[in-house]
Amino acid sequence: MADQPAATENGQNGNGDIRLGSYIKGLVMIAVLVGVGYAVKGLGIADGFDQGWIDANIKDQGIWGYGMFFAIGAVLTAVGLPRQIISFLAGYAFGVVEGTAMGVLATAGGCLLTFGYARFLGRDLVRAKWPRMVAKVDGFLGASPFLMTLLIRLLPVGNNALTNLAAGVTDVRMLSFVAGSTLGYIPQTLVFALAGKGVKVEAETRILLGVALFVASGLLGVYLYRKVRKARAAHKAGAAA
Question: Which single residue of 3, 99, 165, 221 could bond 94 by disulfide (Cβ 3.0 to 4.6 Å)?
């Protein structure tokens, strides 16, 4: 009897076929994502997570309120709720300083959940079915994962949850991605925490401060992008020589 072809790391066997286990994990990943999405929408969980709910369940609840906000915020951002909403509500519930910290922690928790979910359930199937797409994401993040992730988070583009899912199926280290994301979340989180708290300054001043922080984070992102691009060009030139 002929030997069975050995399975490779990306979930394929020696003939290039995807292992059944990879299919099952990928299908489970898709089914859970769809199920959670419908549950959040059908039960009105995201709609109910508003200022009234914060007043009743989070404010003045001590450590329980902090823990509840972190857990719910992490889960909701993991399934696609915009992180700006979490940041606004964090500012409303805890004030500017603590609200910024809680908003960043909750969003980083959601990042970790989504990244880990993609890494451990859907990675084999996605890499086997769309190797070129994964290679492109790997190429973008791989040279400097922390710096490039920081760049993505500073620039006001892209979808947070989809970015986490895409990174999860690459070879990027989880620690580098989550750390870069956490640092990059801070500027926008501060802007929305300020708005949520309704800081007692003139409306024009508050708007200008928010715009300044937003523009500053974007300019920093552009600077980092150019720096990384130059470093890559120099590396390619050196390799060609």
Answer: 99
Handedness of CA 125, 130, 132, 135 (dihedral sign): negative
**How many other CB atoms are found less than 10 A from the CB of residue 35?**
10
Buried b / exposed e along 145-156 (16+ C-beta atoms within 10 A): bbbbbbbbbbbe
User: pLDDT in tens for each of the 241 residues of the chain?
Assistant: 444 444 444 444 444 444 555 445 545 555 555 555 555 455 445 556 678 888 888 988 999 999 999 999 999 999 888 898 999 999 999 998 999 999 999 999 999 999 998 888 877 777 777 788 788 888 878 778 888 888 888 776 678 888 898 899 888 999 999 999 999 999 889 888 888 877 544 555 656 766 776 677 667 767 777 776 776 666 566 666 6
Q: Which helix (H) or strand (E) holds 186?
A: helix 174-197
Cα angle: 227, vertex 229, 234; to 5 degrees? 95
Task: Give the CA dihedral 177, 183, 187, 191, nearest 10 degrees.
Answer: 90
What are the strands, taking DSSP E only, across 130-175?
none
